Automatic annotation (TrEMBL):
Its EC number is 5.3.1.16. GO terms for biological process: L-histidine biosynthetic process; L-tryptophan biosynthetic process. This is 1-(5-phosphoribosyl)-5-[(5-phosphoribosylamino)methylideneamino] imidazole-4-carboxamide isomerase. Keywords: Amino-acid biosynthesis, Cytoplasm, Histidine biosynthesis, Isomerase. Pathway: Amino-acid biosynthesis; L-histidine biosynthesis; L-histidine from 5-phospho-alpha-D-ribose 1-diphosphate: step 4/9. InterPro entries: Aldolase_TIM (IPR013785), His6/HISN3 (IPR011858), His_biosynth (IPR006062), Isoase_HisA-like (IPR044524), RibuloseP-bd_barrel (IPR011060). It catalyses: 1-(5-phospho-beta-D-ribosyl)-5-[(5-phospho-beta-D-ribosylamino)methylideneamino]imidazole-4-carboxamide = 5-[(5-phospho-1-deoxy-D-ribulos-1-ylimino)methylamino]-1-(5-phospho-beta-D-ribosyl)imidazole-4-carboxamide. It is found in: Cytoplasm. Pfam families: His_biosynth (PF00977). Belongs to the HisA/HisF family. GO terms for molecular function: 1-(5-phosphoribosyl)-5-[(5-phosphoribosylamino)methylideneamino]imidazole-4-carboxamide isomerase activity. GO terms for cellular component: cytoplasm.
Amino acid sequence: MSRTKFRPCIDLHDGKVKQIVGGSLNESNLDELKTNFVAKESPSYYANLYKQHDLTGAHVIKLGLGNDAAAKEALSAWPDGLQIGGGITDENAQDWIDAGAEKVIVTSFLFPDARFSLDRLQRLSATISRERLVVDLSCRKRDKKWVVAMNKWQTITDTEINQATLDLLSTYCSEFLVHAADVEGLCQGIDTELVEC
């Protein structure tokens, strides 16, 4: 029997919890940033709320620099209960797990120069274990297919989301995180075409 599971998120920008409209975060032009919500409450408030309601699989995403302290605040509110993403590499992944993350979420590190690196994925998976790794396949639609987008959804990579990609990556991670960046933050529901794909 299948069921829907709510997986909440704490998106962090400039140390604050925000809901950002997908693809509008461009650090070279911050005037383009569009938000639907900027929280008055701290990251730990939301981490405690998710813990209280047993909303497992929640993730904390650091959108740019200046979010480490806020991320650690959330992780310490629910040790081993939240996943962390944003700037994760093979050099800092274990540090984030030691800081309380259940799992780390990685995108950009796997795509140097916007090209997928199997070597980097294998190295990261060996460093922290497959069970602690989530591969972020957030994407944008291009030419009737979905392509992984990195760098806050600004850079399109060479990797299409399809069965072959999922089969390869699943060997090295325990979960995928997929955002349809073109509809992210618009409060218009899911991208049904992507789900069907």
